[in-house]
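Researcher: We're teaching a course module on how sequence relates to structure. For the next exercise, students receive a sequence and then see the predicted structure as tokens, so they can try to spot secondary structure elements on their own. Here is the exercise chain.
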Amino acid sequence: MGTEQKDRLSYAIVRHLQSLTTDDSISEESRESLSVGFQCLSEALGIDLQNTQQALTLNVDKSLQQIFNEAYPAPIKKAVSKDDEAKAANIKDQGNELMKQNKYEEAIEKYTQAIDISP
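Model: And here is the predicted structure for the students to work with:
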């Protein structure tokens, strides 16, 4: 990877970390730790998000989060019918019975079948 690409990636990482410092889904303590990490990395990498020239040369069109989401989309949850739920519960119960009989491998197979039907 060339120096310019490394610099652009570093800029994107620092920008991402900075965005996490205002993320309300993260605890206040964690946001504070991220803020310290953001400041350390910014200084170590020579990145200043307030620097207009750096923004013009290093900024990318998408945020690191957007790039990640596109590369690794969240799995689509399969809708499970009531019949499938009942079938999965029945198979799970069979697994429970096998566990009581110390038939662990067979129980694992039943649990796996149940999960495949109703995750």
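Model: If you want an answer key for the exercise: DSSP finds six helices and no strands in the chain. Residues 82-100 form the longest helix (19 residues).
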